[in-house]
Each structure stands twice: as structure tokens, then as C-alpha cells.
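Appendix C: a fully annotated inverse folding record. The material below is reproduced so that readers can follow the format used throughout the book. The structure is listed first as C-alpha cells, followed by the designed sequence.
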């Protein structure tokens, strides 16, 4: 019997559309019943503010008469207005806060949906079974996300409260001195071409996991991953150097699956803002990563001056480390600067 694949395609598309609608209703908690104008009326928030928030969140824009919203959307708008009214979120910081939340949750949501789709394929589940699985798993994911958020909130609060009171008074976007590090995979482009989608994802996830472990083991914090590169911070140049050296050494070990990397580290004034770090120190660390050769760590004068007590013309020492000067390196945006290759001293 011959199967007409062309006649099957419309039915498959209809089935997928029904499944997508069912999943959407399940995730939203209810079927959308409100237009944008209904949303504005129920929330008490003006249309311009509602449209701005929706855009900042990265959600698709819809016409005023399209049914696309639920009562939860109206509640969210009311809560946003209440936070501003209480002074918890100022008008100036609202946009940045919403964008940060949107970026973080969009990335998390994409990963979770891909995970559920992969689970469906592996188990050859029916649509009904897939919906039932989501219905069972969703509350657990939601509870776990809330737990992780509260733990990070607690950790950040403890760190802030134990800091310099003068710095606290300056606000959440005030400057402080931090060590900044970038770790970059060597030959990422050529290597990634040899891998299929699954292999590439596994490779990158392994890299990110190993870097995160090394950073956390030494009291640092991963700020973000940018494809084949990780940005981290540490309280001291010594910690940053140790993190970078451990990773560089792993990349040079032929028996270790960790890829070959290079790193740049810098120490100086940094501005923290909504989970990110900004300022010249961050820029210099990034530039130095491109200067570093495979398997090496390159540091700026801030790291050098903080670590070294035994100064020579071209090589200085710091406990079990040695720093070899590279003079007059051309760095984009900063002209020619001196920097140092950081290595361990041989016993």
C-alpha cells in the first residue's frame, strides 16, 4: 500500500498546532481570553506602559484586538506598577531590570523546551502523554527555580552586607575593585565545524561546567558565557590567576577532554550592574585574552602590581608564580601597554 506523504503533511501540521496550543495553555495556566485593550483595562496600567513592558520582555507584539493574554498578564502589570509605587523599582531602573529578567528566562525557557522535546522523542510519547508529562514536571521545575533564586538572593545579600558600608551606601551600581578573567577556547571555529549539533552542545556544556567548577572552587563567580568564552570575577588577583592557570593546564593535558584554552586577567575598578560587570578593567581582560597564546595566561599591570614583590626588569616573582613581561603589546582601544605572562615557578 502506497502512503501519500503529501496528504499526511497537513494533518501533521494540524496535530503539531493543536499540541503547541495545548502546551501553551498548560504553561500559561489558562487559555488566553484577553486582548491588549482588555489587559490594560483589567490591570489599570496605561497602554503605553503595557506595550513598553511587553517589548522589554522580548515578547512578540500583537494588535490591540488579538486575543493573546491571560489574567496572569494583568496581574504582572499590576505588580510592576505596585513595585514602582513602593519605590522598590524606580522608573529609571525598571527597563534594565525587565530586560535582564527577560534575557535570563528566555535562555532558560529555550533550554527547557528543547529538553522536553528531546524527552518526547526518546520515549516516543503520544501527545496526551507529553502533555501529562509537562503537567507533572512543571510544578517541580517552578519550585526548583524559586529555590535556586532564593539561594542566590541569600548569597548576594550576605556578600553585600559583609562589604564596605560606604560602598553599600553608594548603591547597587557602585564601583569596586575586582579581578576579571576571560577564558577562551582555542580553535573553536575549526573544531565546531567537525561536530554535529549534539556533539557541539555536549562539548560546550562540558567546557562551561568545568570552568564553572574551577571558578566556584576558588570563591569566584561566573558572570556569563559568550559562546566559546567565559567571563568570571574573583575577589583577588591571586584567585583569578589560579583559576586561569588551572584551566590552561587542563587544556594542555592530552589525557584530559577539556579543550585547549587561553586566558586574560586584569585587576582594577569594576562596576557591577544587574549581574554583569562593566568598565575598562573588563575590557582590558577581554583584549588580553586575544593576546595570549594557547595554554597561557596573560595579566595586566593591576594583577602584576598586586601579586609581585620581587621586581626585575623583565621577570617578577609572586610566591609560586612568575610573571614574564611582554612590553609594548598593542591592544585595541588602549594603544600599547605592558602585560605579563603568568606561569607557575618550577620547584
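Designed amino acids, in order:
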Amino acid at each position: 500500500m502506497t502512503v501519500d506523504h503529501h496528504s499526511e503533511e497537513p494533518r501533521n501540521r494540524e496535530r503539531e498546532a493543536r499540541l503547541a496550543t495545548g502546551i501553551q495553555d498548560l504553561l500559561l495556566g489558562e487559555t488566553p481570553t484577553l486582548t491588549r485593550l482588555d489587559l490594560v483595562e483589567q490591570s489599570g496600567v496605561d497602554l503605553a506602559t503595557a506595550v513598553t513592558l511587553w517589548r522589554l520582555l522580548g515578547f512578540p507584539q500583537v494588535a490591540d484586538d488579538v486575543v493573546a493574554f491571560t489574567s496572569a498578564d494583568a496581574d504582572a502589570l499590576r505588580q510592576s506598577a505596585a513595585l514602582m509605587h513602593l519605590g522598590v523599582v524606580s522608573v529609571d531602573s525598571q527597563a534594565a531590570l525587565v530586560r535582564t529578567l527577560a534575557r535570563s528566562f528566555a535562555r532558560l525557557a529555550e533550554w527547557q523546551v528543547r529538553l522536553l522535546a528531546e524527552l518526547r522523542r526518546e520515549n516516543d510519547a503520544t501527545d496526551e502523554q507529553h502533555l501529562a508529562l509537562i503537567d507533572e514536571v512543571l510544578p517541580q521545575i517552578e519550585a526548583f527555580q524559586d529555590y535556586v533564586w532564593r539561594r542566590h538572593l541569600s548569597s548576594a545579600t550576605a556578600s553585600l552586607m559583609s562589604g564596605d558600608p560606604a560602598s553599600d551606601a553608594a548603591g547597587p551600581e557602585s564601583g569596586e575593585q575586582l579581578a576579571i578573567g576571560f577564558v577562551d577556547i582555542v580553535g573553536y571555529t575549526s573544531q565546531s565545524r567537525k561536530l554535529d549539533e549534539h556533539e557541539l552542545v555536549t562539548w560546550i556544556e562540558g567546557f562551561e561546567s568545568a570552568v564553572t567548577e574551577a571558578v566556584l572552587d576558588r570563591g569566584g563567580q561566573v558572570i556569563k558565557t559568550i559562546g566559546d568564552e567565559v567571563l568570571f570575577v574573583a575577589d583577588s588577583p591571586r584567585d583569578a590567576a589560579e583559576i586561569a592557570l588551572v584551566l590552561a593546564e587542563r587544556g594542555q593535558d592530552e589525557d584530559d577532554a577539556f579543550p585547549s584554552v587561553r586566558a586574560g586577567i586584569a585587576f582594577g575598578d569594576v562596576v557591577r550592574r544587574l549581574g554583569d560587570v562593566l568598565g575598562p578593567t573588563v575590557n582590558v581582560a577581554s583584549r588580553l585574552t586575544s593576546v595570549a597564546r594557547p595554554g597561557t595566561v596573560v595579566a595586566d599591570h593591576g594583577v602584576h602590581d598586586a601579586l609581585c614583590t620581587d621586581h626585575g626588569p623583565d621577570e617578577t616573582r609572586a610566591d609560586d608564580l612568575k610573571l614574564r613581561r611582554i612590553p609594548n603589546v598593542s591592544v585595541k582601544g588602549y594603544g600599547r601597554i605592558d602585560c605579563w605572562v603568568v606561569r607557575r615557578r618550577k620547584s
